[in-house]
Amino acid sequence: MEIVLLEKLTDPAKQEAIRQLLILADQEFVPPISARTSSTQMNLAPGGTGSVDAYYETIRDLPVVLALENDRVVGFMHFRFDHTCDHISYLPNAYACTSSVHPDGRGHGLMTKFYTAIIEAYPERMVCTRTWHTNLGHLHILRKLGFTETCCLENDRGEGIHTVYYALPPRV
Ligand SMILES: CC(C)(COP(=O)(O)OP(=O)(O)OC[C@H]1O[C@@H](n2cnc3c(N)ncnc32)[C@H](O)[C@@H]1OP(=O)(O)O)[C@@H](O)C(=O)NCCC(=O)NCCS
Prior knowledge:
Blueprint lengths: L1 E5 L5 H14 L27 H7 L4 E6 L2 E10 L11 E9 L8 H12 L4 E7 L3 H9 L3 E6 L9 E6 L4
Bound molecules: coenzyme A.
């Protein structure tokens, strides 16, 4: 398995593979990707268009880390530089906005490697992300890598589902 960090992905076949991975995992996200219109939207109450495409358009041109098996995309993590919002103000940063691994490739450390690639490539940047508080696998990885919770928005994704922000300070 090859892990590749690209600040811009221009290969249409790999872009389409990412879109297909989003479709495959759509309902695992909380709320589903198809119920959102952007990777940075603050209102995470259900809505959206019923398709992943509006969301996908907002991540397509972002930097990405890919897991490639014989040039086939098994997983990805899109991230953006210097994302700020009400809960993230530190600059410079690298904000991991969307990640998914094909079900057959899970549990082999790929998401851990995506974060490690970003952490090592940009030691001067804070690395940050957000997720829902019941995404236990993701939270396990973040804590293992030394991230700490910086903010918790209770019931942000519906009753009893909180949004949590995590960050790792610069390493230099
Ligand atoms: C989240 C996701 C990307 C993780 O990818 P992955 O490549 O399987 O992740 P890794 O193999 O690097 O790590 C998974 C870790 O979580 C742990 N884990 C899995 N389920 C867990 C749970 N319920 N509770 C605690 N830890 C758990 C695993 O043991 C593993 O830790 P370890 O390496 O220390 O043993 C993948 O499950 C996925 O695509 N999920 C659907 C989409 C999604 O949730 N994306 C993230 C949205 S913010």
